[in-house]
Amino acid sequence: MSKKVEVGQKILIKNEEYALENKRGLAEQKKLCLNMISSPGSGKTTILARTITDLKGRVRIGVIEGDIRTDIDAQRIRATDAPAVQINTEGACHLSAAQVSDALADLPVAELDIVIIENVGNLVCPSAFELGESGKIVVLSVAEGDDKPAKYPSIFAKSKVLLINKVDLMEAVGQVDFDVEKVKADARRLNKEIEIFAISAKTGEGMAQWCDWLEKSVKEVRNK
Amino acid sequence: MSKKVEVGQKILIKNEEYALENKRGLAEQKKLCLNMISSPGSGKTTILARTITDLKGRVRIGVIEGDIRTDIDAQRIRATDAPAVQINTEGACHLSAAQVSDALADLPVAELDIVIIENVGNLVCPSAFELGESGKIVVLSVAEGDDKPAKYPSIFAKSKVLLINKVDLMEAVGQVDFDVEKVKADARRLNKEIEIFAISAKTGEGMAQWCDWLEKSVKEVRNK
After folding, report:
1. Whole-structure pTM over 0.90, yes or no?
2. Splitting chain B (224 residues) into consecutive groups of 10 residues, what average pLDDT does each group show?
3. Interface of A with B in 39-68 (CB under 8 A)
4. Kind plus residue range of the DSSP H or E element containing B76
5. What is this model's ipTM?
């Protein structure tokens, strides 16, 4: 085995150990934990802020925000009154399970139903690093084009949910060419079990179905 | 120095050697080489196809396409009659200079004025790997939001040109909130010299200025 592969594997194994520890702790407390992954600018933070507001009184959500720099996103989440912890990776292209372990210690987990981790905007690297989540959510904005499951298959193959966001951009005729049915078929070819919701976090379209799925998933974790 | 850092540096140094070799070869032949970097779905391939068509008879362009999987993008470039070589990274999140070295051997470089390398869709990792280019082009679609220079500063700091794409999406009032002047100011704070063009590869808006810049840059390289 080359030195490069050996060291790469050691980093992954160390990450896996932290991820298992996070997972065990969250499972003991019967908390749902979701790892949200997408390209930059697909609308992850807008989706989270709207989801928190729409589920107020039904589901309590806390957020771990991953960004290379700035705490813009944590501020946007806190404006909804939900707790948020910001991690700055200072250049790194994904969150690690060790960073999430530290962030979990700073969140009032006992008072929450769901912890959502918003990963660094990157459709490639975060899919290789487990953080201790119950499942991954991949977000694809219609502005990114409908060839993304074919071109970036790993994250679509590994995700529990696909959120197709910004569907309002398709409404102005000819504004954005995006074939929702093609994306659904391509994603299901990679991942038979994937749940798919077409939403607009801006207009609210489709948000009710997504929120119902979250509430149902919280109950399933609680009754385990 | 830890083993991890040491091996990481060796990979970067090896890449740097290939990059220097590519750069030297292209400079000897007086060819402009640009490394195009962006999030997935910002419109890189659409920009390239339109640029090639708009510059027909003035500037000859060849393309190296980097994707994790599929040769969809190389096919789109070849449909314009320009030569294109597809690299599939099979999971890797950026192109390496060694891959570009192989691809250059498959392109008719002597017959071209510009080689454009379309990197893997990723706003983070590709900025750390030199490929031998004369300069980097960062593409930002207005659908991605105007906070991206602040959140992903490295690539904006290192690029010769910023293309703000899909400006047609701002025209339908209220469709996309994106403050072009804020992005320009944030990018120039990171990088005083950066050239900025606001374009729509779909409608053609702003393409003439970008194409003129390319033609002027080709002449500068030729007269060096």
Report:
1. yes
2. 67 92 97 98 98 98 97 98 97 96 98 98 96 98 96 97 95 78 98 98 97 98 91
3. 39-42, 67-68
4. helix B72-78
5. 0.88
